[in-house]
Amino acid sequence: MIQDPRDRLVVALDLPSIAEAEAMIERIGDAVTFYKIGYRLAYAGGLALAPVLVKRGFKVFIDVKLHDIGNTVEEGVRSLSGLGATFVTVHAYPQTMRSAARGRANGLKVLGVTVLTSYDDDDAREAGYAASISDLVARRAAQAAEAGIDGIVCSGAEVAAVRAAIGSDRLIVCPGIRPAGSDIGDQKRVMTPREARAAGVDHVVVGRPILAAADPREAARAIVADLT
Fold it and tell me: Catalytic residues per the record (predicted)?
């Protein structure tokens, strides 16, 4: 159970360097307890920041969406387990999820990414999927439960179907969250923080609306208030 409302908000540190990430963390201050390290920062040396943040009392989400042969995924997750992070993502393919579940250790939770929030049904068809986004997400969520991983990453639009598939004991994490009136950028399946909380989402991931704000701390506080 989430005790601190700030834990519901994960701020995506989608920045080009550790120095810029550290500066943003200082600007945000105590408004946030949870940070995500994704591709941009991870490939700029950002994985080394994870244990530093953990030592400072923050929670860390490693968003690298692993997907490879089973042994590679299992060993990759096992290595990432040494960073002290709370979450790591893999693509929600059955073999990948089962392998990740075998590799997790030290309390690391594995989240399966169903369908990216920048995709809609046209994008799915272009990629060769005959099923609709909603059907594909529901199927992958059910497979995640069978694989024994800890939760699902999906858009707010699919929360009800995902919860039905994975039950109440697993986590739902939603990216593509935009405060009311915000630019949705390249996202296509979006939801406001207040809508996400009402839908039963456990954690939301927000990047640009906080990072690009004139006052990132106040932007984060406003989102936390909407999630409370």
Answer: 65
